[in-house]
Amino acid sequence: MYNKVFLIGNLARDPELRYTASGIPVAHFALAVNRFKRKDSGETGQDVDFINIVAWRRLAEICGEFLKKGRPVAIEGRLQVRTYDAKTGEKRTMVEVVADNMQMLGRKTDGASSVPVEEKTVDSLAQSSEEEIPF
């Protein structure tokens, strides 16, 4: 069995960084991913899928610090299916991607000039940090 997901898209909202009761950081955000399709008329169009992403520990902190709405990113992770009870008492099922790695893409704009941002992976960010990635 193999459960691996690779996604490239733009952040639909800023990451929401929280901490568990035991102090473990967790970030939640959504990734907007375009899906191209051919309409019945023969024209091409596109739809957007919004994929929920969850990141844990140091990756969550990095996402909370560096990612902003609209930013293009690549996410590598695994699918996770969770079941929970809604406020109405109904059982609900949620599919999300648990991120193992994240890479920032694109360019950062600063006023009128465009400054390229080197692509950073979690590994390169962790090496510049004093603490080690715990996973």
TrEMBL record:
<keyword id="KW-0238">DNA-binding</keyword>
<dbReference type="GO" id="GO:0006260">
    <property type="term" value="P:DNA replication"/>
</dbReference>
<keyword id="KW-0235">DNA replication</keyword>
<dbReference type="InterPro" id="IPR012340">
    <property type="entry name" value="NA-bd_OB-fold"/>
</dbReference>
<protein>
    <recommendedName>
        <fullName>Single-stranded DNA-binding protein</fullName>
    </recommendedName>
</protein>
<keyword id="KW-0234">DNA repair</keyword>
<dbReference type="InterPro" id="IPR011344">
    <property type="entry name" value="ssDNA-bd"/>
</dbReference>
<dbReference type="GO" id="GO:0009295">
    <property type="term" value="C:nucleoid"/>
</dbReference>
<dbReference type="GO" id="GO:0006281">
    <property type="term" value="P:DNA repair"/>
</dbReference>
<keyword id="KW-0233">DNA recombination</keyword>
<dbReference type="Pfam" id="PF00436">
    <property type="entry name" value="SSB"/>
</dbReference>
<dbReference type="GO" id="GO:0006310">
    <property type="term" value="P:DNA recombination"/>
</dbReference>
<feature type="region of interest" description="Disordered">
    <location>
        <begin position="108"/>
        <end position="135"/>
    </location>
</feature>
<comment type="function">
    <text>Plays an important role in DNA replication, recombination and repair. Binds to ssDNA and to an array of partner proteins to recruit them to their sites of action during DNA metabolism.</text>
</comment>
<dbReference type="InterPro" id="IPR000424">
    <property type="entry name" value="Primosome_PriB/ssb"/>
</dbReference>
<comment type="subunit">
    <text>Homotetramer.</text>
</comment>
<dbReference type="GO" id="GO:0003697">
    <property type="term" value="F:single-stranded DNA binding"/>
</dbReference>
<keyword id="KW-0227">DNA damage</keyword>
<feature type="short sequence motif" description="Important for interaction with partner proteins">
    <location>
        <begin position="130"/>
        <end position="135"/>
    </location>
</feature>
